[in-house]
Here is the input.
Amino acid sequence: PELGKKYSVEQAVILLIVRDLKSIYDFEHIRAILKVAFNTISDRSDDVISPLAYYESCAHVLHAIHHQDTPSMKDSNL
Here is the structure.
């Protein structure tokens, strides 16, 4: 954050995104991902997707994966 100020919601979400991506990627790859999605980190007007929308989308995907019904082996056509 700027000196003496609190983190904005977008900055806090970016920290959460970095935290999540750390389990998969190194910082060089995380930096590249953030650059593609958010362009200039300090300028929210040039984002391809907002940090909040990105994080919310990831949460929806993970929720759907976690709560999907998995077919039993007997229901499979394999």
Summary: The mean pLDDT is 84. The CA atoms of residues 71 and 77 lie 10 Å apart. The two ends are 54 Å apart (CA to CA).
